[in-house]
Design a protein that fits this description.
By secondary structure, the chain is mainly β. The chain has a single domain, classed as Single-stranded right-handed beta-helix, Pectin lyase-like (Pectate Lyase C-like, 3 Solenoid). The protein has one helix and 31 strands. The longest helix has 17 residues. The protein is elongated and about 65 Å long. It starts with 5 loop residues before the first strand and ends in a 13-residue tail after the last strand. The N terminus is likely disordered. This is Polygalacturonase.
Amino acid sequence: MCVFCLIHYRRVFSTVYFFYIHACTYVTSFVITVKAFLRAWDDLCGATGGRPTLVIPHGKEFLLSPLSFKGPCKSKNLWIQLQGTLVAPGSMNAWDDNNKEKWIQFMQVNGLTIYGGGQIDGQGKIWWDYCQALSFHSCNNLRVSGLQHVNSQKNHISINGCNDVDISHLKITAPEESPNTDGIDISASNHLQIHDSFIGTGDDCVAINGFSSYINISRVLCGPGHGISIGSLGKGGAYETVEEVHVEDCTFKGTMNGARIKTWKGGRGYARKISFERIRMINAGNPIIIDQTYVNRMAAASRDVEISDVSYKGVIGSSTDARAVYFNCGDGAGCRNIVVEDVEMTSAVAGKQLFAVCNNAHGTSSADRSPRVPCLLP
Ligand SMILES: *[C@@H]1O[C@H](CO)[C@@H](O)[C@H](O)[C@H]1NC(C)=O
């Protein structure tokens, strides 16, 4: 390791930019790296034609202080081939006051693909709950695949205001006890696919927040963590909507929750057209849960975010909570058209019988399964 590294990039072919590091494999100065990255970004973003690609080479580590890559860019599509490792600085000094909440941010960049097998290391232990590691704001037609994300300071990946997003083949890991380290956090975004990934963190594997729709999640292994969550919606009386969320062929292993929908008392809006199909629970807590009583001591209003058309089909495996199905709906409209079919779970605790509890939940369930769900109202 050397202290004074030089970092350049050079152009190979017409629009492929390759980072070149002189004399070392670990760039220890974030001032130098940020400068080099921003220069490379300017060229990449301004490139026209060909296949504008920035290659961050294998076997190298780049220490990066917070930075934003801003569009709009000239080319319809851009590629970042991340093979090496991006590392957040090990002390807070690199975080200036204006830039507390985001580490690596892309804004208004359309047609971006990030791939390449590299790693993004947030060094989270130093400032957990402080900052999002990789965030995308207003990035349409976004692809992120084949990366490893470790120890984010807070959310590993945040998607806000983006349409047409495909996220796949990621490995996202943080310790089970790390606070607010969501895997992928989605808000105000439409038409997203998350698939074929492993997410094990200290908070939600995937969190779907307000004004999001057409979100498909498939073949994701989640755990440890708090499960796949819709919400919490309606905080402080807010109007929020989520619809068309489909979770299929996912596994929850040792998670605190499984398929969860949570709303704040006093909120407005709706969560509807949501399905969980072919889900496997391995020692999961609260495998199926809707909770409309999210704490908000300020809210007096007895209205709720409306929950309707939610189905659970083919949920199998083991629950650490005897109350394996819990529909705790508000006393206003309650939850409508909840469908439970082919749920076949056993207790992870020997000798315990699983059961379901409903409050003001309307819907149907197929008979003779475990737990039986006789508590749904017509
Ligand atoms: C998302 O999932 C739904 C329900 O399974 C399916 O009908 C739809 O085609 C999927 N969308 C995409 C883009 O895969």
